[in-house]
Hints:
- There is one protein chain.
- The chain has 15 helices and no strands.
- The chain has helices spanning 3-6, 15-26, 53-80, 87-108, 111-116, 122-135, 145-173, 176-180, 185-200, 204-212, 216-244, 255-263, 270-281, 293-300, 304-316.
- Residues 70, 100, 103, 165, 194, 198 line the site of one fe (ii) ion.
- This is Metal-dependent hydrolase.
Amino acid sequence: MSNTQARLPQPLGSPLFERSRELGEASEHIALKARKVSFAWEGTPLHWIPDDPFTTHTINVLHLLLPAGERWFVHVYKQVLPYIRDEKLRADVIGFIGQEAMHAQAHDEVLPHLKEQGLDPAPYLAQVDWLFEKLLGDRTLPPGRARTWWLYERVALIAAIEHYTAFLGDWVLNAESLDRKGADPTMLDLLRWHGAEEVEHRSVAFELFLHVDGGYARRVRTWATAFSALVFLWQRGARFFMENDPTLVDGRATWREFFAKGQQGMLPTAGAMARSIPRYLDRRYHPSQEGSTAQAVAYLASSPAALAAEAREKGAH
Ligand SMILES: [Fe+2]
Ligand SMILES: [Fe+2]
């Protein structure tokens, strides 16, 4: 056992966590399981939303950020796991770890396909890896308060990021414009399978944050960091893809186009993103108030990739 872990306050758990548990229980609780999906990318075109490279690439940024980001979630959570004093939360965190590891792998598998089509993501990925491994990694902090502070800070950062993965998951499950525009069904299934699991496990990260700390100043501070980082990384990623797309001459990503695509239902609107901010910062916030578990579970029951994973699992037993 490391000194960091030994110095975590014991037992963990706070009145905030207890109240949150009640809220979570009031909504439907589902045992989380990782679905071992795989996708075949051969038939997916470079612009998988026909004639819309901007929306295609803006959504493609997920494939750049999520593998490193979700592996980092798993890395941080494994450090906190031995100190969770609530069996149900521990089971949720283990289910969450399994799901996020699978998400990272599924998005990773899109990258060779992009490279085959002339879009090599390596230069951008190097920056993302640096961010998660060096800037947000374990650091060589002395054992004790500084190390505990940094662990709690990262748990809170993950809770803030998960507010947005749930937001995006809810959005993509309802983004009928993507279907109307003829978006590639395999990519849509990847996004909706992932989005549905994000909605399904949306309370776990916030409840873990409340369990280990739950401080309001920390919630606000880490939200500001996570939100700024997401906006910064996302616009850089979209610019990177647009500028390096071999089929575009002078490809550019602009805020004007982002707002326009939001109005057309092809991306989340700026208004919906703005409204999500006070909800997270509200002291009464609980993720169960966001999105619909029933809708997520219904999608997972019909997702081609999730169904194939289930059939494989049944065949293996
Ligand atoms: Fe995920
Ligand atoms: Fe997640």
